[in-house]
Amino acid sequence: MHLWSARAADSVFVVGYADYPAVDARTLDSTRDALVKNIGGRALEEKPLAQAGLVGREIVAESGETLLTARLLVSGARLYQVAVLGKKNAVAAADIDLFLSSFQPLGRNPAN
Fold this sequence. Notes:
By secondary structure, the chain is of the alpha+beta class. 21% of the residues lie in helices and 50% in strands.
């Protein structure tokens, strides 16, 4: 897993990726479950997603006053994670969407 993050006040903005032998629905399910478990929370919403020529899922989870919004995007055998984690209402919904929507992988993934 390769992960980069930046903190802004009470929130963390994250981009990461991991390479697998193959990325299937079970990989997405286990990644979702791990993200939710990491915050000790529960999933609120999950929907399919297409972005930058990739497919995946968007997940929203909460734990107390903590909100996680994440996108899992698949490119061949590579799974990208783009997420915002922080206190509820610390970041405007439009800014969360702007960050998540701005993700676009550069170049061609050698795992394709």
